[in-house]
Structures are given as structure tokens and as C-alpha cells.
Amino acid sequence: MDTPASLRDRKKLRTREQLIESASELFAERGFDAVTVSEIAERAWVSERTFFRYFASKEDVLWPDSEEQLAQFAAVIESRPADEHPLAAVHGAMTMLAQAIGMDAGPALARAELVAETPSLVARDMVEHSKWEAAVAGAIRSRTGAEESSVAPEMVAVVAGGALKVSFERWVQAGAKSDLSELIDGAFAAIQEAIRD
């Protein structure tokens, strides 16, 4: 039997999902810049004030679970085998991420296409990438015990971030029909070749 608290939580989750779904539909129909917060709220059958209870801005609807996903990704990196090289640990975590994206490619592909066609979203996308690199660097620093003065965790994050960026862009260009995990594996293999050369 539902308690009042659990019922309230379910209703809040449903409202949040309705806002994300409504925004996605409108963005697909008319483009990001042509859609207002008021229109998203109206399609979701809520008030504009309710929208802002869930999201601080229209851009946030495109990255609704960013903080949670970053925390989960960092936790996976930290939980990888202790004797695994930091770059290999990130590679392993990224493969798991790619498999999760592959199961539900729609939102990631739709967002990438919106960013590509909307100059106003490019800056936010870069911020998200920077947050990703910071989370990776923090996880590497935590698992290796690297000194604050060491640049190694940041370098691992930048290299891994480059591999993910190139792989993801190729995956998007292929309309999400290629295997993102395989693209990531290829990018990391190219890094290893470059290091050996």
C-alpha cells in the first residue's frame, strides 16, 4: 500500500518525466530556440512555476540527470580493480556507459543533433564535457591517491575525454547504428598506438 510520501514521490517523478518528454517533443518539432518554457509547461499540463521547481533553465531539460550520472560514472571508475591502470579503468567504465547508452540511444542522439544545430547550446555542451573531465580526474585522484600537485589525473581525464568525444561524434554521424563500445575500444587502441610510437 502506498504511503502519502511514496505517492507524492511518484507523482513528482511523473511530472518530471512529463516535462522532459514534452520538451523533447517540442524541440524535435520546432528546434530548441523556438520553444519557450511556458510552452513546455503547457504541453505537460503544469504551470511555468512548476517547471522551475524541477529545472533551473530550459537547457537543464536536455541534461536532466547529469549530476547523478557523473557521480555514478565516477563511482564505477573508483570501483574498478585496484591494479588496473587509470586509463584502463576509465576505458572500462566508459564501455559500461556506452552499453547503457546503446540500450536507449534515442535521448543521447536527439540531444547531440540539437546541439549540432543550435549554437546557443554549444557552450552548455562544453560545460557538461568539462564537468565530465573533472569527475573523471577526481575519481582517478581518489583511486590512485595522487598528490594535488600531480597533473596525472587531469591528463588521464583529458585523454579519455578525447577518446569519448571522437567515438561519440562518429556514433552520432552513423545515426547511432554503429556500436559505441567498439568505437571507444578503437579510440583507446589508437591512443595506445600513439603512446608506443
How would you characterize the overall build of this protein?
It is a single chain. The chain is mainly α and 197 residues long. The chain folds into two domains: 4-61, Arc Repressor Mutant, subunit A (Orthogonal Bundle), CATH 1.10.10.60; 65-196, Tetracycline Repressor, domain 2 (Orthogonal Bundle). Helix content is 77%, strand content 0%. It is built from nine helices and no strands. It has helices spanning 4-30, 37-43, 48-54, 66-79, 86-103, 105-117, 119-144, 152-173, 180-196. The longest helix is centred in the N-terminal third of the chain and has 27 residues, at 4-30. The radius of gyration is 19 Å and the shape is globular. The termini are far apart. The model has no long low-confidence stretch (mean pLDDT 91).
* Mean residue pLDDT: 91
Q: What fold name goes in the CATH topology slot of the largest domain? A: Tetracycline Repressor, domain 2
Strand content: under 5%
Give the overall shape, derived from the CA principal axes.
Answer: globular
Number of helices: 9
Helical percent range?
over 70%
Described by strand count, sense and barrel closure, the largest sheet is: none
Number of domains: 2
Number of strands: 0
For the record, give the distance between the C-alpha atoms at the N and C termini, rounded to a whole number: 64 Å
Sketch the topology as an H/E string, one letter per element: HHHHHHHHH
Which consecutive residue ranges, at least 5 long each, have pLDDT under 50?
Answer: none
Which CATH class of the largest domain is shown? Mainly Alpha
- Second-tier CATH architecture of the largest domain: Orthogonal Bundle
What Rg, in angstroms, do the CA atoms define?
Answer: 19 Å
